[in-house]
Amino acid sequence: MKMEAIETKEKKLEEELKSAGCHYGRAKRFTHSSMKQFLLKKNKSNIEFFNLTKTIEGLNQAINFLAELLKGGKIILFVGAKPACEKSIRKIAQEFNMPYVDYKWLGGFLTNFGTIKTRIEYFKELLRKEESGEIENYPPKEKNRIMRELEKMKKIYTGVIHLERLPDALFIVDLNYPSHQTAKAEANKKEIPIVAICGSDNNINGVKVVIPANDKAPSSIDYLINYLIAGIKEKLQENG
What we know:
Blueprint: H1 2-19, E1 24-27, E2 47-49, H2 52-71, E3 76-79, H3 86-95, E4 100-101, H4 113-132, H5 140-157, E5 169-173, H6 178-189, E6 194-198, E7 209-212, H7 218-238
Parallel strand pairs: 3-4, 3-5, 5-6, 6-7
Antiparallel strand pairs: 1-2
């Protein structure tokens, strides 16, 4: 009976994944060789489809890995600097009080973190001046320049304002997104493990935990992120 219950639960999860469009890959001409292991073999369509059993395995591996990091007080940097996943990446990061990048990945964020840290401190100083009203005392031209700079910095640095050191892991949605390719390369260079939601066009070499699924559609990303949040919370509660 226990095995039947597990099979029923997995069947229901597969149906939910399909309803959210998580099983869709890209056209076959875009398929990266490293992703073939996660795709349905017998598929006459021009569009790739994910083997959802592999997707579920990836989700469970990610839940276990991320929950273990959080339990140990480690820092996970959540990266989703493209419109389709901005809200979801903020949601999961804020749920666990972790830093996030939801607007733009700055080149050198990991490999030149000292400089980034200096910019974050400058951002904090401008926020202090805004809150205290000190900026209002500047000449109009200078005030306008600072306010323009501050508004731009809010988009870039708000999610990482409390990041004091390099993260212990990165979570990325869509490794093929241009700036995410840079994030991945920097993490690999600094030997920081990566967990990623990966579409059929992703190069997963150098990725520790792969969640093979549709990384383009908001409905798919939202479902996967919500599943991860619920699963991680459950794991953390199990561990006390």
